[in-house]
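Record format v2
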Amino acid sequence: MPWSNILTPAPIVLPLLVGAFLAGVGGYLPRRLLDGIALLTSAAVLVVSCMLVHASAHGTIVHWLGNWRPALLPQTGKFFPVGICLAIDPIGAGMSAMVGLLSMAAFAFSWLYFEQVRSLYHTLMLAFVAAMCGLCLTGDLFNLFVWFELMTAAAVGLCGYKSEESWPLLGALNFAVVNTVGAFLSLSGVALLYARTGSLNMAEVGRSLASHPPGSAFLLIVFLFVSAGFLVKMAVVPFQFWLADAHAVAPTPVCVLFSGVMVELGLYAVARVHWVVFAPSLGTAGEQAVRDVFLLMGTLGGVIGAVYCFSQRHLKRLLAFSTISHVGLMVMGFALLDPGALSGTAVYMVGHGMIKGSLFLGAGILLHRCGSVDEYDLRGQCGNLWLLGIILVIGAVGLAGMPPFATFYGQDLIHDAFARAHRESLSAVAVIAEALTAGAILRFSARVFLGWGERQEASSRGSPHVPMDSETAGQHDKTPFGMWLPAVLLLALASGVAVSGQFRQATDAASRHFQQSEKLAAVTLESMNDVPSPRTSPAPVQFHIETPVTLALALGIAALALFPRVLGERLNWVLGRGLIAAMRPLRRLQSGNVSDYVAWFAFGIAGYGGLLLWWHR
Amino acid sequence: MPGMNHLITYTGLGVAAWMFLVGLYGIVTSRHLVHLCLCLTVVQASTYVLLTVIGYRPGLPAPIFTDWVQAGSLAVDPVVQALMLTDVVVEATVVALLLAITVKIHKRTGSTDPAAINVMRG
């Protein structure tokens, strides 16, 4: 069908074409027309992606670009891919829909947010959107690397967009160097896979590895290499340092895309490469090693991100560290390598993306109104911005995984999977991480909007005070309706999307489908008709004691942080000293020096590689 | 000569790994941002070596079919060369971007030492 042939690659092609067009003639177009074109383009990406989700629910869509279909090799009697394909399943298309949705929110917000913005911004954003969609939809290993690099380049440009300041430049530099080093290791991994199998098509590589399995040590190391770039992108500890530097200084609408979907795409790519390429040949011992190492990564990220998050006073940095923590929880969900947990992770990812997007927009509104996002500078200053306070508090509750937010349903499935795997202790890690991150946002809101808590923080506890005055010109008296709308809508969507069983049912079927690599290979290479995994009625949502405990802990932590005196003078003093002493080394690690970050990268790869090899015996 | 072939492959792999590590060492110890960008290109060059070694077939010509090299005859693997070209293009973009950022950073802060210009701690 010609229409489907044109529409299938549209989420990638359309933003690139429009971006190129705007790069050429954007200088002559009025600002509102630029905004309108960009907004319409991302709306088109959203619509087409949703159509792809719907269509691929009946079976994976394989689209051979330029119609270069696999050739039948007479020597072997097998099909061999000579072209490049898009392999679209509901999860990938759903991620691409998230890209469309969040970029719409970002464009809608920047409509009124930026006083003046040149067409370069729209071009970069559209290239960024195209690269992210490409990463979601591709079925080719080398293209995965190319989209990853294009995504990085566009994101770095956006991060350093305010190039009159030195802070955004430094953030962009750290971002670019660490991610690019990771990408080179990924490329080396892809090259080694090509050397072994003679193909770059994921399905073919997976099938070829399964038919002549190399040693599992080789497979595990190559898996780590291929994943390296994505592990950096998804800010796994100890590769996470660049993220906070970049998020704190990037323009706020861009942060929506950074935290809401770019970081999560790293996990998506690792999961996809794992199931399509490596899972068929890793064997039980190899899978066990992957599971243990990724559970370790997730636990470290969840806890360390949450501790950093709680110690911030700058809202954007605070949200950035909370992303590190929540991605840690998602990594734990992936690491169980279980269909139920994967489905929970996908639902959680959707909910987290929308809530985090809304919270960053809230930070943007705060910056627009008050010219600062600093907790102590703004203490009690923003009582008239009660709607923003409500958005932040609801967002914090949503991040803590309360019903009816999608995060609740996702987490419910992940906790079930922890119980099935007899790893209940991981549930406790998740509870602590979520309570700390939600508590930090609650503390911020109470101090800023209600004026609760102390006026000055203990001097040496201070986290950096990032000057933020350049993004919007000064302070404004009122916030236009158009800036509230995307923030409120995203929150509403995050709470509404998973309430009906339909969404969870579809995600569950899609996740089971995502893990069937042999079937995908047959569909991709032999154009076999795909049969979707049957939908089963969603498991009834069970009551987990973790849910109320998380909320109670979050409230308690926030209250203690605001009113430490209730503990009594002595205990307060001891706790305060203890916290300062505990945070000092952690703070020193976040040095802002890119050389240190690359050293941590080398250390992390060596460490995880060693653990993979050690644990698979 | 299969022995010769293995020797070339393993030497190439060793050179690629060494270049990767040396580039990383350069980035970690760098005191100048331009030097740091160049070290990044050294890391990148390791992927060129790796790809070249993977595509190499002893004794075979380049995959450019002329009167002397018949179409359809054996040649070294052209796919990795296409990968390498793409790699060059992509990384030229990233390095150009980094150098532009370096120039801007020097303009703003007057310094190009990554250890001296850091302002974001904790």
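The first helix of chain A runs from residue 2 to 7.
Residues 400 and 434 of chain A are 5 Å apart (CA to CA).
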